[in-house]
Amino acid sequence: MTNLLLDAEQLYGELRAGVGRLMTPETILVGIWSGGAWLAQRLNADLKAQRPVGTISSTLHRDDFGERGLGAVEATTSLPFEIDGARILLIDDVVASGRTIRAVVNELFDYGRPASVELAVLVDRGGRELPIAPVFAAAKLTLPANQRLSLARESDGRFTFAVKETT
Amino acid sequence: MLARRNPQLNAHGELIHLLSIEGLPRAILTQILDTAGTFLSVNDRDVKKVPLLRGKSVFNLFFENSTRTRTTFEIAAKRLSADVINLDIAKSSASKGESLLDTIANLSAMHADMFVVRHSESGAPYLIARHCAPHVHVVNAGDGRHAHPTQGLLDMYTIRHYKKSFNELTVAIVGDIVHSRVARSDIHALTTLGVPEIRAVGPKTLVPGDLREMGVRVCHDMAEGVKDADVIIMLRLQNERMSGAMLPSAGEYFKSYGLTEDMLALARPDAIVMHPGPINRGVEIDSRVADGSHSVILPQVTFGIAVRMAVMSILAGNDA
Amino acid sequence: MKILIRNGRVIDPASGRDETADVAIAAGRIVAIGQVPADFTPDRTIAADGCVVAPGLVDLAARLKEPGPGALESELAAAAAGGVTSLVCPPDTDPPLDEPGLVDMLKFRARKLSRCRLFPLGALTQRLAGVELTEMIDLTAAGCVGFSQGEHPVKDNLTLMRAMQYASTHGYAVWLRPQDPSLSGGVAASGAVATRLGLSGVPVASETIALHTIIELVRQTGTRVHLCRLSSAAGVELVRRAKAEGLPVTADVSINSLHLTDIDIGYFNADMRLTPPLRQGKDRDALRAGLADGTIDALVSDHTPIGNDDKMLPFGEAVPGATGLELLLSLALKWGNESRLSLAQALARVTSEPVRVLGEALGSLGQSAGRLVEGGVADICVFDAAAEWQVTPDTLRSAGKHTPFDAASSGTRMPGRVRHTLVAGTLAYSASSDPTTS
Questions:
Q1: Is the peptide bond before A25 cis (omega within 30 degrees of 0)?
Q2: Is the pLDDT of residue C111 over 80?
Q3: Which residues of A touch B42 (CB under 8 A)?
Q4: CB–CB of C119/C143 below 8 Å?
Q5: Which of B94, C152, C318, C422 has the highest local Cβ count within 10 Å?
Q6: How far is the alpha carbon of C193 from chain B, nearest alpha carbon, in Å?
């Protein structure tokens, strides 16, 4: 079910404005699979960035491997640039506990030593369990713990939000 | 009945042991191959390690010696951040008369999480899987003539890498198939993945007629066997075959079944040549072919590490 | 002791009797079947309502080689629990039965237990080494009913021919396992299953080549030969032709080969490690047809008790064999039901027919063993043909708990449950006092 109070396209517009203000010629956008990756790709095109965009997956560094197993393998990391000394802006659709970000940062450091890593998200829904903070969030809101929020992409490229009830 | 459920799968149909490719659904084979693709990229990073098996103990139990296979399993486990303990049982307690199950019980008491087992008797890993503690996973690294599932999987990964689709391939497996666990695993994997034409090529003493019931075409003529093949898998010929009255000499074998450049020319122009190793140059394969442009023998080794990482991480994530 | 078995369905395959009748027993013999004298006052009455009263089973192959001491006690108790009142054991005990003194002692110990009559086969050659003959006259005097090599080969055909000639001089029977020594080294039957599982195979030729040799030697020497444990369709056909020719051969088949095939090996279940190995479906069908038409004379348990240490091993390393004394009756009934034979026809293969195979070797006992005859020995099995049970380690009295028919492996429901077994008019087993029956 789509939450009509959250217009993904409208929030994307705000994210684009915010990221636009943050970016420098050296900034490299890296999207977290899957929602963040879609956002980063569209941002990279809309902002006419000079650098290639990267995609990163948290699969290999997740801290819940023991309970959940390996899970989806479609998520792969693709970083077509030199990590050492890079200024990286991570993009994700939703940040909550912060554990995905922690895993992604560990994955990033397997490739080299970036100069800096920052985070911009579409939605910050709170409930942090780790000391992680985005420098920009298009929306801050609270949702019931049993509702999962994620980004969906229509066939024409438009973004919508999907909300799922978990048991 | 307890004895009838496939011992490799738990009640949810998830893989908890890898004992043989036979009986595994196509979806599980595909899952392993897809996961292996992810791990291949780990081998290219600066930090060639991921923490998936951190804190887990993987015991390499090799009742039959093999430095090559043991090394690749050790590398794979360490890249997953596991602790690896190597046990050359051939030299230790078993030769003092300790039974297989006593050895397993002792190791379980040392809190092993995974056993990688190679044994000279077909079926030994099944016995181990039946009797080890519930949370322990068993990986068969080769049992007698029966199965070598990780080799079968890496062979499939190799084929998929170069040929993309299995649906229209002709695959020829050449050599001592009756004694080969690699051949059996390859045959099961190829049939499960839908390869339409699989040929078993060799003399009658090494390629018996009842192999047909495994879904292969039996060819005793090499030219017929490799004609228009997309993939040629060469198997090692062991010396015991000559002393067991199955073959007169390595020389005569090479004349009939060796993969020479002339024989290779009968296959498809873009055919790939595979071999599980170690190769016997001049016995089953001509050096020029082994080192030639069709050969993918060395990439097989690289893929082997990624496939073993995939197997171990999938197993470790599933409960009994 | 005077015993009256009341109201049971009395089935005697040899005479064709099948009727509800009382059976009166005194001084170890059957005094009456049916018209029991009014003044017969039994010391004990057994109610056999709803049960079959049959001759005690005669098992032509049961090993008493043990795991552990006290094996004779547990195995003969197992026999009694299985309704077996006479059994033939092969000479491959430790030490082998090549000395009359060993035979005497074995028979003495068995007699003291009063559970089951024991008829040992003597070793054909000393130490079963296949080279020098044993003293067959003395061994027969001590109680041997024939001569055998167990699973051990004879050194060569010349020695085998001479051994057969010597035995036939005195009219002794030679019991032989038809397997060629150089072809029988595998651990499973040659075929698609062995190939798929990567197990070394025993080709059918191992049995047929050995049968051709043995049959030819019978032609030349006229020796009475009993062929032990046929396993293949080709083997059955060879025996059929030999009998048609009038040669003095008989044959048996084991409960395992009669019911199972190589597919039952499943995931390397070591309980299926047997010799002869389990062959294919068409072989099983031929064995079943051969047992029905009399080409195969007897069904045997091939009882071989094996301990965990020798079975909980990789398939090829496990010791071949399975427990069977307590399964013989049920598996005979199961085969009979599935082959649409009458109870009498099925029971014949484990009672009167085995006795016919033993022939003169039983002496006067042969006149009534395996049969229910007024004036004959009171070796009787009372069983409930309709009851079903499943095999689990605690339902077995044998020290050997490994059997392919274990509920966990096969889920086979076993028809027929023994209620009472009498040997020489003494109660050797009674289900009501058996803690393993529920």
A1: no
A2: yes
A3: 60, 110
A4: yes
A5: C422
A6: 9
Closest residue in chain A to residue B33, using alpha carbons only:
A73
Residue A104 or B92, more confident: A104
Please answer whether residues B117 and B88 qualify as being in contact, where contact means their C-beta atoms are separated by less than 8 angstroms: no
- In this predicted structure, the answer to whether residue C67 has a pLDDT above a threshold of 80 is no
CB distance A38 to A8 below 8 Å: no
Compute the 3-state secondary structure of chain C and give helix, strand, coil in percent, each to the nearest 5: 35, 25, 40
**Strands C52-55 and C380-389, how do they pair?**
antiparallel
Task: Give the pLDDT of residue B2.
Answer: 44
- B2 and C CB contact within 8 Å: yes
**Residue C86 contacts residue C371 (beta carbons within 8 Å):** no
Which string of b and e fits C149-166 if b means at least 16 CB within 10 Å?
A: bbbbbbeeeebbbebbeb
In terms of Cα–Cα distance, which of B17, B40, B314, B114 is closest to A71? B314
> Distance between CA C438 and CA C435 in Å, rounded?
7
Decide if pLDDT at C101 tops 90. Answer: yes
CA distance C233 to C251: 13
Query: Could you confirm whether C302 is annotated as catalytic?
Result: yes
Choosing from C302, C379, C384, C406, the catalytic residue is C302
Residue stretches of chain B with pLDDT short of 50: 1-2
pLDDT at B79: 95
Is C199 in Cβ contact with B127 (below 8 Å)? no
How far A1 CA sits from the closest chain B CA (Å)? 29
- Predicted pLDDT at C398: 92
For B32, counting Cβ atoms within 10 Å of its Cβ (0-12 exposed, 13-18 middle, 19+ buried), the class is buried
ipTM of this complex: 0.88
In this prediction, residue C71 has a pLDDT band, given cuts at 50, 70 and 90, of confident
CA-to-CA distance for B146 and C197, rounded, in angstroms? 5
DSSP state of C391: B
A touches B, CB cut-off 8 Å, minimum 3 pairs? yes
- Split at pLDDT 50, 70, 90, the class of C304 is very high
The pLDDT confidence band at residue A61, using thresholds 50, 70 and 90, is confident
Render chain A in DSSP notation, one character per residue: ---TT--HHHHHHHHHHHHHHH--TTEEEEEETTHHHHHHHHHHHHTT-SSPPEEE--GGG-TTHHHH-S-------B--S--TT-EEEEEEEEESSSHHHHHHHHHHHTT---SEEEEEEEEE-----SS---SEEEEE----TTEEEEEEE-TTS-EEEEEEE--
The string of pLDDT tens digits covering residues A108-137 is: 998 889 999 999 999 999 999 999 999 999
Interacting residues of C419 by C-beta distance below 8 A, sequence separation 6+: C48, C51, C382, C383, C384, C430, C431, C432
The whole-angstrom separation of Cα A42 and Cα C275 is: 72
H/E stretch holding C331 reads helix C328-338
pLDDT of residue A4: 53
C141 alpha-carbon distance from chain centroid: 23
Q: Which of B128-137, C54-63, C197-206 has the lowest mean pLDDT?
A: B128-137
